[in-house]
Known about the structure:
Shape: globular
Largest sheet: none
Helix content: over 70%
Order of helices and strands: HHHHH
Oligomer: single chain
Amino acid sequence: MQWIWESFKHVYAVLAVVPIVPFLLVYFGLGAYTGDRKRAFRTAMDVTTALLIGCVTVLFNTIFNSTFGFFGIMLLLLLGGGLLGNIQYRSKGLIDMKRLARAVWRIGFFVISVFYILLMCIGIGKSLFTM
């Protein structure tokens, strides 16, 4: 049973290191299977967000010698959900949780992607200059 967990961790690690690969795999795979490129793009964003959360967490923790990475990302997602929920409640008078969660998750994709690029550049620069 332990080998299953270890295999899962290795596959996740490989996919999370270069998140463009699973994004392209899901996008082109689902796009070819269903023929709906718009749905394939949204699904690829959803899958890649989960991988980016793990990768950005590790990058943040490594660069800043911290353990706050995951909690910081969750804090940003929760704050975004609160702000968007407030906007939705003020405009419509009720909160559609499914739509709110989907919006936060997809906005999170773009925000975390920017953090990924920024932290990757900082990490590469830091490793080059400390040699």
